[in-house]
Structure prediction request, 803 residues.
Amino acid sequence: MGQLVVLNLGKGDWQQGFPWVTAQLWEAGSSAPMQFTGSLPPMPQLETLYPCWQTFYEALYSGFTWRRSRQMVPDIPEIEIDETDITNVSEEEFHELCQVLNETMNTWLDASEFRKVDQRLRTRLDPTAEVRIIITADDSRVLRLPWCLWHFLDDYPRAEIALGPLDYRRSIRKDSLAPSSGKVKILAILGNRDGIDIEQDQRLLEQLPQADLHFLVEPDRTALSQMLWESRWDILFFAGHSSSQGKGKMQINQTDTITIEQLKYSLKHAIAQGLKLAIFNSCDGLGLAQDLADLSIPQVIVMREPVVDRVAQEFLKHFLTAFSQGQSLYTSVREAREKLQALESEYPCATWLPVICQNPAEAPILWKDLCPVPDLAAPQSSGPTWWRSPKECLDWRRLAKTALIGLAVTGAVMGVRAVGWLESPELWGFDRLLRARPYEQPDPRLVIITIDDDDIRAQTQDERRGSLADETLNRLLHQLHQANVGVIGLDVYRDYAVSTHQQDLKNDLQANDRLIAICKSRDAEADPAGVAPPPEVPEERLGFSDFVKDDDGILRRHLLLMTPDPASQCTARYAFSAQIVFRYLDEQKEKISAQFTPQGNLQIGKTVFPRLRPHIGGYQAVDASGNQVLLNYRALPSPDKIASQISLSKLLSGHVNLNLLKDKIVLIGVTAASSGDYWATPYGTTSKDEVAGVFIQAHMISQLLSAVLDGRPLLWVWPWWGDGLWIFGWSLVGGISVLYLRRFFGAIAIGVALIGLSGSCLVLMVQGGWVPWIPSGLALIVTGGSVAYFNSSGYKSRNLPSS
Prediction:
């Protein structure tokens, strides 16, 4: 039901202020509210502004026919206003007055005394959720304000304000109510239609789905009272003339005007029988709503001021459409109210008029709550045919045989898995689970300087031997020094010495202990030599850039360290990502060091990174040489969204605030399509889905830092026996579903179980757990099918009931 705020202004007035304001916040599922207190200062301007606005409003609308006859308010004198003045002067003054009222009201609600309540509500309210705000006050004049103008609503598009009584209680319902017919029962009173078109209201009501309508056209008091007594109603609707001048009253026919007090007992009976909503599509209905609140009606919708036909009909049309199509009462009213803005060029302030009056002790209703499906006839004594009898279900021979089938299927699946036949499907499932995780925020510790094709072409061709000319790199490093970055990761190959006339760059590469550079180890088949490191960078600031692909070309593993190959030009022991993390953690106030556990696992601080083994999780024949872990990509819409990005040209042009780079890890990498440094990930394997290597490095760095500093889980797997128990459990689910359910209901249960399995695997993946998904689904289906087979053949031979 969303979130509920009851804002009680308490005792007070415009001259003295409201010294004790309380806001109670109920969140979904909570049985008790949170409460915040504050106050509102005096605002005597509002005491005169609103009556002045009302006078201008009535004068401006004096040429229209509205749903309040002058006979109902004989004490109001005729207002003689020249039409020319209204058009040329009064209308402009009215708009200015509206603006002043709007600004004064929001200035009052933005007072420092009330800001504490406002801010605490904002910290707890969800901008995407439905928020019901019910305002109560001892002074009824403050409730007449157009609260829909409160700027608070601008930040909560699904919030709507209602008015409530200061004292309230649940309505008393009768224990035995008439059975539901499956339709919404609506009593529609069409009162005095003198000068107004309420036939349109009738036509709108007649278009409602699942509605049982009863119209009372200009009834007398006896007929109306009798109808309230004799039948059960869900909604009471009135269209005609009404007023709240003095006491709320409505004109039910051309001669009779009636108050709520005069219908008190019949209305109390109707509320006890289930009346939940009253709609007064007529003028100035706050007095009627207040009187109905004394009878504890759940909710009322009224117009706070006089209203013309067109506005009343448009609101009713939009409200009924939204409400009958399943939207909540509050969302429907807000949507219908805001759609009136299209009329405000002709009917100013139309959006101010509709308002909900809510009993805070009652829950808001939905259309479907008013038309529940009637109870179906009781089943025959022989019982339903889609599940088996208790005698069949408690047959231990059946249960034991189902368990044996499940055990056999589990053994077969584990065997097929062990020889690697399920590795490809399992890796496919792994990728889907990774992509289905809830999105995380980009890593705020990282910034990536990208070098694209335009950046490469913009450099001096004579001096550029790779993607970065010496002069460009020198300028870039100078900018980063000025920004006082934490660590610089140069993810660009430089297997050549700095030019002789760039001595500053040479000195920087040699002495800058915050700069980490890359080299590439050799591959005996694909790259026999590897790529040498920059000659100026000492070995302790080098990291290898090697990635480990699976047979399908996708990167799912993170190589942390390996034994250097003496024949390679690159003899770095640690990965580029690991070296950056070591350097970054070394710069923190509380230094975090790395070491190795007795099992040979890398440990950074208190976090251990268990190395992969040849048979682990879905991998059955993986090359686990070196020290590898599963790469837990940060959950993002695309892997290249891992961190903030700045183009090389933009940074060098001076259009970047260098303070944004302070203490960050800054990666410099080539994203040019011509570089060939693009990789397939679990997020996609096509050329448009592949991402540049620098983004992969960022994910690797983020994984290590997030695990050590943030407690973000690493990817983990169960031992083989844990996987076996998980698979066996789901095989039993499949077998028992078919055992207990007859015919195709067993197949439906299998489908539901597969959905449950998928959801369970996803929940565990969010926590870092890669558990068997495809093998468990296979075991579930095979066991269910096997039990169904034996249930239709083997069990028949024993004269047991068949499906």
In short: Residues 83-109 form the longest helix (27 residues). The two ends are 43 Å apart (CA to CA). The first strand starts at residue 3 and ends at 8.
